[in-house]
Amino acid sequence: MAQQNTNPARGMRDFLPADVRRREYVIGIIKDVYQKYGFEPLETPAVENLETLLGKYGEEGNQLIFKILKRGEGEKTGEADLALRYDLTVPLARVVANYKNELPKFFKRYQIQPVWRADRPARGRFREFYQCDVDSIGSKSMIVEAELISAVSDVLNRLRFDSFVIKINHRKILAALLDEAGVERDKHIDALTALDKLDKIGIEGVKKEFEVRGLSETAFESISGLFSRIEEHSRGNYHIKESSHVRQPDLIAWNDFSFKEVNRMIGENEEGKKALVELQMLLQLLNKSNHWKLQFSPNLARGLSYYTGAIFEISVGKEIGSLGAGGRYDGLIGMFGKEEIPACGFSLGLERILVVMNERGMFQELEEKGLLKAKPADVLVTIWNEETIADSLELANDLRAQGLRVAVYPEADKLGKQFKYASSIGVSAVAILGDDERVNNSVTIKYLETGEQETILRERLSTELKI
Predict the structure, then answer these.
(1) DSSP state, 257?
(2) Is the pLDDT of residue 88 over 70?
(3) What is the pLDDT of residue 230?
(4) Cis peptide before 249, with omega less than 30 degrees from 0?
(5) CA–CA gap between residue 152 and residue 66 (Å, rounded)
(6) Is the dihedral of CA 116, 334, 322, 134 positive or negative?
(7) Contacts of 347 (CB under 8 A, 6+ apart)
């Protein structure tokens, strides 16, 4: 019989203990920050009704949904009625529509769960990955956007990212630019989908996308010309400083080429003008913070079709795609019911955060500072012989009661082998409970890093053990 392939499915991964510890460390910080901002936890099923997901992500998004064939007799039809969730936002919208009478007027939730996409795997892109979402439901106020940006920025600062930029734009600004470029409204989603690929395929790739989607060359030249001028004149990141001032509704008050050029390009488009004012209000709300790294990016599109207002994306450099993204989606919840409920959210990509932290050696630094436990236990309790197993288990429980993480060697064996095993798993100390120790009610402790060895009375372990 041929040996079976033991690798996981393409685009999926196994996580060994060291991987899981790092993931749990990052998730723990994300949860802590989200909870500090008053967000409540939510979980939804991995499987959704197919109709729940279809039509929410645009044509390309629909093609990436993992569909589940009907079961039993229905399997013969080859039809699907269920699907693995594509993201956490649409399930949230379904939950809000279903439980709106049981939820508070302003519902703030965070959700950290895996999602699945039938995408082509690449560096930092997998078919199964975790999203760490934070969303506010029920208000159109720009305070919502400010809090979300504040929360994700706090997460990245807590994780010790020393440089990141949160790019911001507005769907209505993009709509105004497309209107002025002569793109018909029913072609806006096509144009935005193409523009969203700018970082991946470059300006020439976007030009080809415009052609394939039946968009005019004149429209492309107009939009690409704007982006080229902005890139040329505004290469640096747009940082908010405490000395910055905005005089509303003067759209030229910000000394920034991007705002000026976009304001000129959209002409008298009323919706576009209002969107520019909204972004300035958002910048003003965050003006007093000294660690914001924000950049107005008119070329930021976000391909998902449900966005309606401000949109965001986190960049940490060209080494990898965005670490997170989001925006306002005031029309999505209404697709599940009669009532339109405003909503806005931000999603951090756990996998990409981990990739960057690994490549930059950030976990090694955390381990060296003792901020990340990188070993399974603090102490290994040895087994002297078959007759002393119960005594060793009792000692292990005593040490655990003192708050230590304790492993027990699973069988009676030569001490040399037990020491070798302890060293291989990286524990700090080995506890020996031999004949002399049992007679004297003591324990011999050997510290593996220094080689030091000492015998301590059992009642003094809690104060004299050097761990």
Answers:
(1) H
(2) yes
(3) 64
(4) yes
(5) 29
(6) negative
(7) 87, 88, 89, 131, 132, 133, 134, 324, 325, 326
Distance of CA 27 to the CA centre of its chain: 9
**pLDDT at res. 237:** 41
Distances (CA, A) of 193 to 209, 223, 378, 383, 446: 9, 14, 52, 63, 62
pLDDT range class, residue 254, cuts 50, 70, 90: very low
**Residues 71, 80: Cα–Cα separation, whole Å:** 9
| Structure tokens, 151 | 């929360």
- Angstrom CA distances, 294 to 85, 95, 298, stand at 31, 32, 13
Query: How many whole angstroms from its chain centre is CA 414?
Result: 47
Q: Give, in order, the Cα–Cα distances in Å from 89 to each of 45, 61, 240.
A: 13, 13, 29
- pLDDT tens for 2-19 read 788 999 999 999 999 989
Query: If residue 143 lies in a helix (H) or strand (E), which one and from where to where?
Result: helix 142-158
State the pTM of this model. 0.86
Q: Residue 326: is it exposed, middle or buried by C-beta count within 10 angstroms (0-12/13-18/19+)?
A: buried
pLDDT category at 395 given cuts 50, 70, 90 is very high
Torsion of CA 179, 280, 317, 354, to 10 degrees: -110
Answer for the pair 431, 454: CB distance below 8 angstroms, yes or no: no
297: CB partners within 8 A, 6+ apart = 167, 168, 169, 258, 313
The pLDDT of residue 35 is 98
Q: Which two tokens stand for residue 173?
A: 């600004």
Q: Compute the residue count for the chain.
A: 467
CA distances from 179 to 134, 175, 187, 206, 312 (A): 32, 6, 10, 18, 22
**Among 436, 372, 422, 378, CA closest to 402:** 378
Q: Render pLDDT for 16-58 as a digit per residue (tens, 0 to 9).
A: 998 999 999 999 999 999 999 999 999 999 999 999 999 898 8
For residue 250 the two structure tokens come to 């003067």
Across all residues in the chain, what is the average pLDDT? 87
Residue 146: which H helix or E strand, with range? helix 142-158
DSSP letter string over 401-434? HTT--EEE-SS---HHHHHHHHHHHT-SEEEE--
